[in-house]
Amino acid sequence: MARHLVIGNGKILMNLDDNCYIRDIYYPFVGQLNHVGGQYCRFGIWVAGQFSWLEDPEWQFQLSYVADSLVTNVIARNDRLAIELHLNDGIHQRESIYIKRVLVRNLGTESRECRLFFHHDLMIDGSEVGDTAAYYPENHTLYHYKRSSYFMFNGFSDEGGMMQYTTGIKRFQSAEGTWRDAEDGTLMGNSIAQGSVDSTISFRTVVPPGGDKTVYYWMSIGKNLEEVKALNQYVQESHPEKLLSRIVIYWNHWLQRAEQNLGDLSPEAINLFRLSLLIVRTQTDERGAIIAANDTDILQYNRDHYSYMWPRDGALIADAMSAAGFQSVISPFFQFCAQALSPDGYLFHKYNPDGTVGSSWHPYIVQGSRRLPIQEDETALVLFALWKDYTRNQVIELPQALYNNLIRKGALFLSQYIEHSLSLPKPSYDLWEERYGIWTYTSASVYGGLMAAAFFTELFGDYERSDHLRNTAEGIKQGILTQLWDEESGRFARGLIQKDNRWVKDMTLESSMFGVWEFGVLPVEDERVIKTMHAIRDGLAVKTGVGGVARYTNDYYFQQSGDIENVPGNPWVICTLWVANFEIESAKTLADLVKPRDTLQWVVKTALSSGLLPEQLHPNDGSPLSVAPLTWSHATYVQSVTRYAQKYAELSSAEKSATAI
């Protein structure tokens, strides 16, 4: 499972696979609705009587992006056909337009006619029921529509516009789809179809021997026919080549605020940092939702997806982007959370991109006992990330606008939702959404959230409230040190769980215990932090050629090995980087940065060929598992590189000063 190339602009997100087939089109929200749903929008070529879809194994691909942009840069070569295709895909930085440039290079010794076929397998609004596909003679285009979602397709070559078209029925009875009609190089020309439909259009060009020709193809997306007609005309009048160039220029400028001095990191690590910033942007809706992942292949495993906004993921991603200098990109996230906050002051499990509450498997009642179906860290970390953003950027208008409806309400909930007998937060689900109890990670995040709220209330002159929140946070800190530190093992427990009506320690080794220092409970130099992080580093290391760090001992999610001693779980990008972050924060000399630098290089090696990062890796062959790209993976890499650069600059300056003395 993976999406190898993603492009977007904050209201459209498009995913392409390793064959450069469109697999997902999300509009009008990033992550909602999906108008392809993981089906295959095929792309093929007919050359002098021979036909091939790009999924044929005979094609060899090089996948990448145009430097510092969200325009793809792909080379597809077919030696049997003696053809090489140079592909560039981009979504307009402002308008709902997708543009594809195909340079066809003839590797043969004779001039040849080439026909390019573009297939559209849409499931408009997430369903293939009631779609219509039709040829539109007014502007010689083909379009699909249902209700208020319209998709218009067009293009041209030196030889003219759309050569042929056809519409038809797909996945109904024996009908496979119109893509089968393309394989003889000629389309039937059926002008309309309704129901479960697809369409295919073609363009022709004649390519001289050793030469090349360019074909342009585009899709306009809108709410009605007039809107997509206007967008189609805009592309024709502006020329798709110029529009693609402007997309590259826009993203080049967008990246200029990113840190340029990244110490001694390799060029590959720097390139992944810049690409990761762009990838996070594609997964961020312009209205605030930061989506976890949009790889619909995950549907094959649990009939749900990652196209939701988890407030925890969103907060940590927002924190990373803020630290990297992209405060304006993530400000709407906090507004989103303020609007989504429940009347009681907590955030739910997850949300749809439009702000409605997402699906959940957390019950309100278990064995007759009522419980809140929440992960308390999701509320706390939003406040924590908001304060960190303010300390960096000093944009006081944002927290002021959120003071009553997010900061105060969220802080009140956190300060009251406490198990007073333990001086810890009441039980909730853990950050992995798997188990119910009182967790070290969650407790540390609540401490961080309460301290953030205390700082905000002090900032706005609400001193009495600030003192109360600070005292509450201090009480939780003492509860963590008293109840969750385990002297016998010399590290923190994962948490507390109830057995026989009493709280007992869950001593499973888990990477998330890094939260004790990340959220400010203890400094990185505290001996308890050091012992815990060393236990994570050593005990959760994946002892195969792949390497990396697992989530926790005997992690069952996509488990690939029963050899728990050597493979405690699959290596996760974020968990591996949490250990690197500790090493960065703890570094006293430049020599101490060698290990985390190696880890950053490890992440580079784990990426797909296009640079996209998965959630986790197969422990034996390093192939991606679960979803790709995972926004949290890219954001954590951004965070680690940012921290590395800051620490490298700090230590370099200190060592130069010491040498000068």
Task: Characterize the structure shown.
There is one protein chain. The chain has 3 domains: 5-255, Beta-galactosidase, Chain A, domain 5 (Distorted Sandwich), CATH 2.70.98.10; 262-287 and 540-661, no CATH class; 326-526, Glycosyltransferase (Alpha/alpha barrel). With 661 residues, the chain is α+β, with helices and mostly antiparallel strands. The model has no long low-confidence stretch (mean pLDDT 97). The radius of gyration is 27 Å and the shape is globular. α7 (376-393) runs antiparallel to α8 and α8 packs across α9. The strands form 9 sheets. It has a 9-stranded antiparallel β-sheet with strand order 7-8-9-10-18-14-13-12-16. Strands 6-5-11-17-15 form a 5-stranded antiparallel β-sheet, with no helix packed on it. 35% of the residues lie in helices and 24% in strands.
Low-confidence stretches: none
Main sheet characteristics: 9 strands, antiparallel
Q: What is the share of helical residues?
A: 25-40%
Silhouette: globular
Major beta sheet, strand line-up: 7-8-9-10-18-14-13-12-16
CATH class of the largest domain: Mainly Beta
Number of helical stretches of at least 4 residues: 15
N- and C-termini, Cα separation: 56 Å
Strand content: 15-25%
User: What is Rg?
Assistant: 27 Å
GO molecular function: hydrolase activity
Domain GH15-like: 279-587
Protein name: Glycoside hydrolase family 15 protein
Keywords: Hydrolase
Summarize the model shown.
The chain is α+β, with helices and mostly antiparallel strands. It has 15 helices and 32 strands.
